[in-house]
Design goal:
Anthranilate synthase; alpha+beta
C-alpha cells in the first residue's frame, strides 16, 4: 500500500474484464509465468518485466466512475518532440530508408503533465472505460514497484491458448475506414513479415501463418488496418523464450527490428516507459494469456503523468501527415483526461 496526494493506493489490476486484488508477490523473472498462478504483467519498451501474482480475480464491468479524477487541461501537456522536431525525425528516417538502413521505423513522442493532487489513475481508467472503450482496456497499480498504468489499447500483442500463439499487429491509421493510403497497407505487410519471423523463432516449423492481412477495424474516432499471425509453440518453450523472440512488438518498432531500434534510440529523447511495451495477464495454471501492445496508454511516475503517441514511418510518409496522425491518435484520450 502507498499513497498519492493523501489518497491511499492499494495494489490492483483490471485486465481481461477481471479485477485482481490480494497481491501475493511481484517478480521480474519471466520463468515465474510458467510455474503457476495468475499474473498481471507489464513489460516496458526496454524489456523490463514486472509480473504480479494476485490471489483474487473476479468479474469487472464498466460502471459509473467512482474514483477521484482531477482533469488535466489539454494545454498542460508538454511533448518530448515538438512539431518541428517530429517532422525532422520523419525526414531523417526517410533518408535512412533511402540509404537502405531500414524499411520502416515507428517514431513516437511522449507527452507529460503534472498530475493534480488527489488524482489517481484508477479514476482515469474508469473514465476511459466509460468514454473510450477498448478491447484491451487495463489498469495495473503496484505501489512501491513504480507501476501505475492505465491503458485503452486496441492491439493484441500475444494471446496464448495452450501451445497456440496469436498476434494481431496494427499498422495503418485513418480517420475513417475509407481513408487509408497505399503506405498504410505497405507498412502493415512489412510488419506481418516481421511478426511471422518472430513467432517462427519459437513455433514449430510449418505452423506459422497469417490468415488475415490488412483487415479493417473501427475504433472511437479512427480506423486501423489489422492483421493476424499465429503459430504453435515448440515443446518446452516458456515465457522467457517467447518474450525474447517477440519483444518489443514489431508494430511499434519497425523493420528490420534491430536497425529500427537503433534509429529510435537516436531520434527519440524520452524513454517510452510502458508505452509500446506489453500489458496483460498470464494464467499459468490454465495455460492461457493475453498481452496487449501498450499503446493508447497513460502512466504515472511520482506526480508526473505521461502519454505516448506515434506512427510508422515509410518512404511514402509525409512529415505533416505523420504529425497529424499522432495528434489524431491522442485527441480522444487527452479529451477524456481533460474531462
Amino acid at each position: 500500500m502507498g499513497d498519492h496526494g493523501g489518497v491511499p493506493l492499494v495494489a490492483r489490476a483490471v485486465l481481461g474484464g477481471q479485477l485482481a486484488t490480494g497481491l501475493l508477490e511481484v517478480t521480474d523473472d519471466p520463468g515465474a509465468l510458467d510455474r503457476g498462478g495468475r499474473w498481471a504483467v507489464v513489460v516496458g519498451f526496454d524489456g523490463r518485466l514486472t509480473a504480479a501474482r494476485f490471489a483474487d480475480w473476479r468479474p469487472y464491468g464498466p460502471a459509473a466512475p467512482s474514483a477521484p479524477w482531477t482533469p488535466v487541461p489539454r494545454g498542460a501537456w508538454r511533448s518530448s518532440l515538438d512539431a518541428a522536431a517530429f517532422r525532422a525525425g520523419v525526414r531523417e528516417i526517410r533518408a535512412r530508408i533511402a540509404a537502405g538502413d531500414v524499411y520502416q521505423v515507428n517514431l513516437c513522442r511522449v507527452l507529460e503533465a503534472e498530475l493534480p493532487d488527489g488524482a489517481t489513475l484508477t479514476g482515469l481508467h474508469e473514465r476511459l472505460a466509460a468514454r473510450h472503450p477498448a478491447p484491451h482496456a487495463a489498469h495495473v497499480l503496484l505501489p512501491g514497484h513504480d507501476v501505475d498504468v492505465a491503458c485503452a489499447s486496441p492491439e493484441l500483442f500475444l494471446a496464448r491458448a495452450g501451445e497456440h500463439l496469436v498476434s494481431r499487429p496494427i499498422k495503418g491509421t485513418a480517420a475513417t475506414r475509407d481513408g487509408f493510403l497505399p503506405k498504410d497497407r505497405a507498412e502493415n505487410v512489412m510488419i506481418v513479415d516481421l511478426v511471422r519471423n518472430d513467432l517462427g523463432r519459437v513455433c514449430r516449423p510449418g505452423t506459422v501463418r497469417a490468415p488475415e492481412v490488412c483487415g479493417v477495424e473501427e475504433h472511437p474516432g479512427l480506423a486501423h488496418l489489422v492483421s493476424t499471425v499465429e503459430g504453435d509453440l515448440r515443446p518446452g518453450v516458456g515465457w522467457g523464450e517467447i518474450l525474447a523472440a517477440s519483444f518489443p512488438p514489431g508494430s511499434v518498432v519497425g523493420a528490420p527490428k534491430l536497425a529500427a531500434l537503433a534509429v529510435i534510440a537516436a531520434l527519440e529523447p524520452a524513454d517510452r516507459g510502458p508505452y509500446c511495451g506489453a500489458i496483460g495477464w498470464v494464467d499459468a495454471d490454465a495455460g492461457r494469456a493475453e498481452l496487449a501492445v501498450g499503446i493508447r496508454t497513460f502512466w504515472r511516475t511520482g506526480r508526473t503523468l505521461r502519454f505516448g503517441t506515434g506512427g510508422g514511418i515509410t518512404w511514402d510518409s509525409d512529415p505533416d501527415g505523420e504529425w497529424r496522425e499522432t495528434e489524431l491518435k491522442a485527441a480522444r484520450l487527452l479529451a477524456v483526461a481533460a474531462g
